[in-house]
Design brief:
Length: 240
Amino acid sequence: MCRDCSCGELPTPAPTEAKVSAPAPPRRTLVLEAGLLAKNDHQAAHNRARFADLGLTVVNVLSAPGSGKTALLEQVSQRWTGGPVGVIVGDLATDNDARRLRRAGAEAVQITTGQGCHLEATMVARALEQLDPAALDLLLIENVGNLVCPTAFDLGEGLRLALTAVGEGEDKPLKYPGLFKSADAIVINKIDLAEAVGFHREEALANLSQVAPQARIFEVSARTGEGLEPLLAWLAAKGQ
């Protein structure tokens, strides 16, 4: 259960026995989610303005756990030629991914969310203070592995990249349309395993075209590096 947005929270069971005979007072519903998102959006606007002042390209990377986000960002960090790369990593626990990305040459900061299933704009703002953003050419935000909650939270990014892997099923975009509809680009990862897992490429592309016609599609292998150059060229062009 997310402690912030209450996804997965079970409804409070109705009492089995009335304890009070007096009429119950009128019930009021507080729209907590709307207030939470408004606060987040306010901070996201500040983040976006700061990124613009710095001329910094910022990419929010979202996917399910295990789709290969960290491996992809390792490849981008190693192959990026435009200047220093920074990464803000979100995980419930450990700093394993941040350490991997530092070894790949990135300036990496880990955000440990505990029970939180997504990053928020204030977390990104605090993490940015641990970097030297003026020295960076590209900032990658590796969001918490989750296909639902991170979609709703603007971090101030300029680009949103959704990642799916060939073993996750061709109908993933149909099951989680919100994520893919919000993406500027979609990476189909682990294409080196496509034949082994029986991946139906044309069906997957048709589903992506139906749900997210606005998004550029890149087919890559973060393990071998296959298909990375078109993605890198797209990111470089977006940063100009």
